[in-house]
Amino acid sequence: MSVIHRTNSQNTIKKSYGDRIFDIVNILVMIVLLIIFVWPLWFVLIASISDPNEVWNGNILLIPKGLTLAAYKAVVEYKSIWIGYRNTIFYTVVGTLINLLISICAAYPLSRRDFVPRNFFMFAFMLTMYFSGGMIPTYLVVSRLNLVNTPWAMIIPGACSIYNVIVMRTYFINSIPPSLKDAADLDGANTFQYLVRIVLPLSKPILAVIGLYYAVGHWNDYYSALLYINDTDLMPLQSFLRDLLMSNKLTMNNTSGLDAASAEAKMQLSQTLKYSSIIVSTVPVLCIYPFIQKYFVKGVMIGSVKG
After folding, report:
1. Which of 142, 155, 151 is nearest to 87 (CA)?
2. Confidence of residue 95 (pLDDT cuts 50, 70, 90)
3. Any idea what DSSP says for residue 154?
4. Tens of pLDDT along 41-72?
5. Residue 82 half-sphere exposure, CB side, CA atoms within 13 Å?
6. pLDDT band for position 307 (50/70/90)?
7. What Cα–Cα distance (Å) separates residue 149 from each residue in 20, 143, 170, 224, 230?
8. How far is CA 182 from CA 1, 117, 175, 185, 191, in A?
9. Which end of the chain is more exposed for a tag (fewer CB within 10 A), N or C?
10. What is the DSSP-derived secondary structure letter of residue 199?
11. All residues at 6 or more sequence positions from 34 whose CB lies less than 8 Å from its CB, including other chains
12. Global pTM value
């Protein structure tokens, strides 16, 4: 027993004074960054369930005061929120599926060494990352295609991200052995069968990561709605929340005919309402992330570092 203990002690490498200082500084920096990033989220959460009067007077800092769900009740009763949810879910689900389909169709041929013009297409794709037509030409194209004020205006113009295509292409090159293609050819599989039955099942990490990128982009997209959508029934959730946060539309439109105390109460509720709206809009995305977390780091590292 003493021999084992002595051997472990000899194998233990003592950290130098500089290493210990580095570890301490590193921990302090991580704690500061944790506070910087976590505290705003925590404040939004506690403010959304606190008494509107306490929020209005700036008395909320670390813990909620006067617990109440009045702001969430007001959000639930706001009909436009549910219209936005419906539209955003449609844009996110359908848009992400189209994004992944186009990205796969672009990345897979570019990863094949026997695809002769792949360097030309790769150059053409990358060129669009640095030079684009701009907002006005893009709007004219969307308008000429009769997509303005339709759900497809939120999906088609940004149907493919070249950055994501490059990451996916790199993953296919470095993670799918060429010997699998030879084995598939011997078994009589064509290109489509090889892609669907072999490549894609082995590419779940990168598909999950790229799918998350696309889904979050669709979920948070409000700028496209500003350009292409005029119909309220087609606007995404973020557009309604933007209108709610900037103009306090929900409360301000209902203050006429109220006495001073009631009007002040509604104004105070508007402050809490902002925070509850943020929580309501971010919870669905936060619920999705844990299910693909195990793929996230692996997919990004393999798809971006190698090659």
Report:
1. 151
2. very high
3. G
4. 888 888 888 877 777 777 777 788 878 887 78
5. 6
6. very low
7. 60, 9, 37, 11, 6
8. 55, 21, 15, 5, 11
9. N
10. I
11. none
12. 0.76
